[in-house]
Amino acid sequence: MVTAADYDAALHFYRDVLGLTERGAFSSPGGRVTILDAGRATLELTDPNHAAFIDEVEVGQRVAGHIRVAFQVDDSATTTAQLAAAGAQVLAEPTRTPWNSLNSRLEAPAALQLTLFTELDD
């Protein structure tokens, strides 16, 4: 669960621009929640040294907080541009990684840092 001060902007970004499918929406007195399907999920646990290594590979410097969400996309370059046009700050354009993927890094609505990655076949 991500708490977003600007709920409408975050919902538009993640649902309408990134394309996560809405599974349900609920409200309480004065509040709202929307459940978005982000596909298969994994939880990566890392130590600070390896987190710094990933940041160095993807961005060139240490930038991530303790939570970063990664989405596999068909075309990380195109999706990065689409998300930037929708208000995300690009921290790093798509970069080929040692693990053979094309990764970009963005600061997205609700103060959530994202990695977009496309697996490379070669």
Give the topology, please:
Layout: H1 7-17, E1 21-28, E2 31-37, H2 48-58, E3 68-72, H3 76-85, E4 89-96, E5 101-108, E6 112-119
Parallel strand pairs: 3-6
Antiparallel strand pairs: 1-2, 4-5, 5-6
GO molecular function, one term: lyase activity
Protein name: Lyase
Keywords: Lyase
Describe the structure.
This protein is of the alpha+beta class. It has a single domain, classed as 2,3-Dihydroxybiphenyl 1,2-Dioxygenase, domain 1 (Roll), CATH 3.10.180. It has three helices and six strands. A hairpin with a 3-residue loop joins strand 5 (about 100-110) and strand 6. It is globular and about 50 Å long. The termini are far apart. The relative contact order is 0.18. The model has no long low-confidence stretch (mean pLDDT about 95). Pfam families: Glyoxalase. This is Lyase. InterPro entries: Glyas_Bleomycin-R_OHBP_Dase, Glyas_Fos-R_dOase_dom, VOC_core. Keywords: Lyase.
Spatial arrangement of strands, main beta sheet: 3-6-5-4
Strand percentage lies at 35-45%
CATH superfamily: 2,3-Dihydroxybiphenyl 1,2-Dioxygenase, domain 1
Reported by name, the CATH topology is 2,3-Dihydroxybiphenyl 1,2-Dioxygenase, domain 1
Distance between the termini: 36 Å
Q: Supply the CATH class.
A: Alpha Beta
Helical residues, percent = 25-40%
CATH architecture grouping: Roll
The biggest sheet amounts to: 4 strands, mixed
The gross shape turns out to be globular
User: Could you name the ranges where pLDDT drops below 50 across 5 or more consecutive residues?
Assistant: none
Q: Calculate Rg over CA atoms.
A: 15 Å
The chain-level mean pLDDT equals 93
Can you tell me the number of structural domains?
A: 1
Q: Supply the helix-strand structural class.
A: alpha+beta
**What oligomeric state do the depicted chains represent?**
single chain
Number of helices: 3
